[in-house]
Amino acid sequence: YKGHPIATLAGPDLFSGLVTPAYQQVFPGRELFGKSLLDVLPELADTEIPGLCHQVYATGETYVAEELPLPLARHTDGPPEEAYWTFTYQARRNAQDVIDGVVVFAYDVSSQVRARQQVQTLNQQLTTHNTDLDDTNQQLVRTNVDLDSFVYTASHDLQGPLNNLDGLLQALRQELPVSERSVPVAHLLELLHDSVERFQHTLTHLSAIARTQAEAGPQAPLVPLADVVRDVLLDLAL
């Protein structure tokens, strides 16, 4: 037991008796032997520790307090240090099997608790990060859908004016007298026709790409038509 923080508290006033070196090492600047619990550790007065010790002393039932956050000062009049402790309190009995004290087994679990808290914090941050990524992904999906719709609509709407322009060029070539069809004018008409034709091909390709992407995207969700019709009937009831 010498390697473990163990102390005995004698009598109802809980005077310190046996104190192992490991227990004394927890409070290197305090004199523990022969003093009551609250004289040694007055900062415990507002905690549940004294009540638990008295409860074990009165009932003889063992009590385990797990991961208690206790601000304890290691030196007299020193600053309190936040730490987490697991205490086991057992009744001590004399030769007549009468309870005459309490045995305290103390375990400093601060490192384990802080490590778990760090993991929990990281998990929360990761959850928040994943949520942000999901929101960003959904926003990108909506943006892509809007862009596809824009490309399809724009290419479709531009086809009409472009076809009109192509028709006007053809009419111009037919109506222009042969005597006025000089080489430069004919060449310019051909260049205009080629430009319009390339523009038409580009718009056709854009429309095809937008249509293909829309068909490859996620399927539209099923709509409960009966509910929609019922809502419409309610709107029209008056």
Keyword list:
single chain; five-stranded antiparallel beta sheet; 238 residues; 18% strand; alpha+beta
SSE map:
Blueprint: E1 6-10, E2 15-19, H1 21-26, H2 37-40, H3 49-59, E3 63-72, E4 81-93, E5 99-108, H4 110-175, H5 183-216, H6 225-236
Antiparallel strand pairs: 1-2, 1-5, 3-4, 4-5
In short:
The protein is an alpha+beta fold. The chain contains 6 helices and 5 strands, in the order ββαααβββααα. A 5-stranded antiparallel sheet has the order 2-1-5-4-3, sandwiched between helices.
Word description of this protein:
By secondary structure, this protein is an alpha+beta fold. The protein has helices at residues 21-26, 37-40, 49-59, 110-175, 183-216, 225-236; strands at residues 6-10, 15-19, 63-72, 81-93, 99-108. The termini are far apart.
